[in-house]
Write a structure and sequence with these properties.
seven-stranded mixed beta sheet; binds ligand MTE; about 325 residues; five-stranded mixed beta sheet; alpha+beta; 14 strands; Sulfite Oxidase, Chain A, domain 2
C-alpha cells in the first residue's frame, strides 16, 4: 500500500519484490557494517531485522494451522507494511527498532462491561498462548505463511463482556509521531484504525498476536500486540494496538476513509473481485518466483463463508 497524500491515494507504486530483494541485499550489507560500527562504539545497533531469541517454547499448535511450510523469518520481518515507519517495504525493519513496547497499555471503551486502561501484561495474563500457522494475503498480491503466537480474539472479547449493543469492534494503533516518524507525514489519517463486525471478531480464527516464530513480535511486525484476520486482506490486521472500542455502528477504517472506492469494510480475500487498479486472481508468496492462484477467503472459506450468507460480496468488498 502506498499513498502520496490523502486525496491522491495510490497503492500502485508498490515496491516490486525483485527491486526490494536487490535493495535488501544492499541493506543487509550496510546493516552488518552498521552493527559492527555500533558495536565498536558500544552504542545502539540496527537490530530491527535481526532474529530475536526464542521466547515461547512448547506452545500448543492450534488445529487451525495450515500444513504449508512457513516463510523464512528473515523475509517476514524485512518486507513489511507499517506506514507509521515509512511507506517502503524495508522501512519498518529499519526504523521500528526504537518503538518502546513496554510499558504498553490497552484502552477498552464503548459498549462493554470491562472498560478501562489495562497494562498489556495484565490484559493478556488470563489467556493461554498458542501457535497458529496461517496463510496471510496482502491486498498488494503478495502472500506468506507465518507461525504466529497469540490468543483467540474471541476469548479476550468474552472476558471483556460486551453488551448487546456491541455490534462492531474497532481497533486503534498508537499515535506518537516522536516514536513513529511516518506519522509526521500526511500519508494516512493517523492513527491507523480498523474494525470488524462482532461475529467476525468472535470467529475462532481471529487472533491477537504477540509473537511469531516462537519469538516476541519484531516491532516492524506490529509489536507488542496486533490483530491477525487470515481470511481478509492484510490491511485489516492492524498493528501495535492501544485501543479496543465496542460500537453499535460500523467504524470507519483508515483505508476506507482514504480511498472508499478501493478498500471496503469487509476486505475479504476474493480472487473474483479485482482491486480497481490490479487483479486479485493470483498472488506471489514471498521468496517464490511463480505466482499461485488466490483462494476465496484466502483458503478459509469452509470456516468463514457462512458469516456472509446472503451478502453480495462484489458490493460488500
Ligand atoms: N497496521 C498499522 N498500524 N499500520 C500499517 O501501515 N499495514 C497493514 C497491516 N497493519 C499497517 C498495519 C498492511 S497493508 C499489511 S499487508 C499488514 O499490516 C502487513 O503485515 P506484516 O508487515 O507483518 O507483513
Amino acid at each position: 500500500m502506498l499513498v502520496k497524500n490523502k486525496s491522491d491515494i495510490s497503492m500502485s507504486e508498490i515496491t516490486a519484490e525483485s527491486v526490494f530483494l536487490s535493495r535488501r541485499k544492499f541493506i543487509e550489507n550496510t546493516a552488518s557494517l552498521t552493527l559492527l560500527g555500533a558495536a565498536a562504539m558500544g552504542g545502539a545497533s540496527l537490530v530491527a531485522a535481526a532474529p530475536q531469541d526464542k521466547t515461547f517454547t512448547n506452545l500448543p499448535r492450534s488445529p487451525f494451522s495450515t500444513a504449508i511450510p512457513p516463510n523464512r523469518f528473515e523475509d517476514v520481518s524485512t518486507y513489511n507494511n507499517f506506514y507509521e515507519f515509512g511507506t517502503a517495504k524495508e522501512a519498518p525493519a529499519l526504523y521500528a527498532g526504537g518503538l518502546r513496547t513496554r510499558p504498553w497499555t490497552v484502552q477498552v471503551e464503548g459498549e462493554v462491561k470491562k472498560t478501562g486502561q489495562y497494562a498489556l501484561d495484565d490484559f493478556l495474563k488470563p489467556y493461554a498462548l498458542e501457535e497458529r500457522i496461517y496463510r496471510f494475503r496482502c491486498v498488494e498480491a503478495w502472500s506468506m505463511v507465518v507461525p504466529w503466537v497469540g490468543i483467540a480474539l474471541r476469548d479476550v472479547i468474552k472476558g471483556l463482556q460486551p453488551g448487546s449493543r456491541a455490534k462492531y469492534v474497532e481497533f486503534t494503533t498508537l499515535h506518537d509521531p516522536t516514536q513513529m516518524p511516518g506519522q509526521k507525514r500526511n500519508v494516512l489519517d493517523w492513527p491507523y484504525v480498523e474494525g470488524l463486525r462482532i461475529d467476525e471478531a468472535t470467529h475462532p480464527l481471529a487472533l491477537l498476536a504477540v509473537g511469531m516464530y516462537g519469538r516476541v513480535l519484531p516491532n516492524q511486525n506490529g509489536a507488542p500486540l496486533r490483530l491477525i484476520v487470515p481470511w481478509k486482506y492484510g490491511f485489516k490486521s492492524i498493528k501495535s494496538i492501544v485501543k479496543i472500542r465496542f460500537l453499535e455502528d460500523p467504524p470507519v477504517s483508515t483505508w476506507m476513509w482514504s480511498a472508499p472506492s478501493e478498500y471496503g469494510f469487509y476486505a475479504n480475500v476474493n480472487p473474483d473481485v479485482d482491486h480497481p487498479r490490479w487483479s486479485q486472481a493470483k498472488e506471489r508468496r514471498l521468496g517464490e518466483i511463480f505466482k499461485q492462484k488466490t483462494l476465496p477467503f484466502n483458503g478459509y472459506a469452509d470456516q468463514v463463508a457462512s458469516l456472509y450468507t446472503g451478502m453480495d460480496l462484489r458490493k460488500n468488498f
